[in-house]
Design brief:
Enolase-like, domain 1
Amino acid sequence: MATKKKAVSTTTHDNMKLWNSVCTTDPQYTKRVNQRGGFTAIGAQSQIMEATKVFGPFGTGFGVHTETFTSFDLEGLCLYQATLWYKSRIIRGEIKEFPIHSSIKYSYNGRIDDDFAKKVATDALTKGLSKLGFNADVFLGLFDDNKYVNQLKSKPKANGNGSMSIAIDDNMKAKIIAELNKCSDTSFITKVNTAIDKNTINVNNFKESLAKVVNHVKADNAANIIKAVDKKYGETTNE
């Protein structure tokens, strides 16, 4: 009796797609904090900028709702709870959401921290986005490794605004390779492969780069057809 093969989900390989595209942190948006044993703090505004690139503007592509602040006066502690939502990149119009929370001491020796509400809400949002993979290298402790940080600093930027050049994933690379397989221009093929290896072709300019490859391949094929026709009719004339 034939054994039935177990069906494999086609979405399994995509589970890490979002994570891998946002997990790398630009060192210029981090700060070393020498408290509580020392840790790396992430610039909250830079994280919101990266989330905006992925989902769209705050309040439109992602955001928070159902915010509550619960105070524990005896301890001078405030508990912040909310729901982080974002637009699905897989199913158009679908909203994904999950709970986030954080706590903060708002009172020290009778003195109230005027910014406690902003601080605790920002901390909860930062930790919430980290669950999706944003700045995962910081939370994984990779910034404790000077070699890792130095490698990041030496990487080229995608543009002038300081955004990191995120490498294209396997699916994107496969699309470019599929086009290159139709091309006979070996120097162009080498040039494109080098650009991929050096991260010159990256997530930020993938669509534009793919379009350029497609156009070059079309032009190359057209030139080859013209050469073949010229050769054929040239041979006929010589006969």
